[in-house]
Amino acid sequence: MKPSIWKWNTRTVVTIGIGAALYGATSWIGIPIAPDTQLRPAVALLAIFGALFGPVVGFVAGFIGHVINDLLTSGTVWWGWALGSGITAAFMGLIYLAKSFDPQGGDIRKRHLAHFLLYGLVGIFAALVFSGLFDIYVMGEPNDKIVIQTISAGLANAAVFIILGIPAVWAYAKRNRSNTNLTVER
After folding, report:
1. What's the mean per-residue pLDDT of the chain?
2. H helix count then E strand count, the chain
3. Which superkingdom is the protein from (predicted)?
4. Whole-model pTM?
5. Using one digit for the tens of pLDDT, what is the confidence trace for 25-59?
6. Is 106 left (phi over 0), alpha (psi -120 to 50) or beta?
7. Residue ranges of the domains in the chain?
8. What are the phi and psi torsion angles at 109 (to 5°)?
């Protein structure tokens, strides 16, 4: 049985710390695709931590990780985008709530992958709409720049999620399957 998403213990805090550190430390790796926007493989970590540990852990790890990355790379935190990373991971973590979804026990089905894909894509674009509007109305950024950033970041994040994130969670579950064709002979 999976732990509740609201149960906080040492393992939860350590998981958030590891997720935030990994996401923050690897987010600087990317390919520039638009002004202040990159294709970042680290987005796959949001999918992994969200799916394996739930939407709350995903949100907190994504948010803190983005703040760490902003501080390391520019010294300025872009709060709308940091919240956007948390929102993205939280949506991806919604798959954790499916009763039969258990990648730690090796149980992942086609319908889980379909739901994971849907949650992830909705989360990516909801987060980018939030981040873009935050930048326009709170930070005073120009509309045309934000439109280019959100569209390019949305396409890049969706590609990373589909190409790296979903297969990573699927492979983890497949590795944990206990039913194999091997038998023990005595």
Report:
1. 93
2. 7, 2
3. Bacteria
4. 0.90
5. 999 999 999 888 899 999 999 999 999 999 999 99
6. left
7. 10-175
8. -120, 170
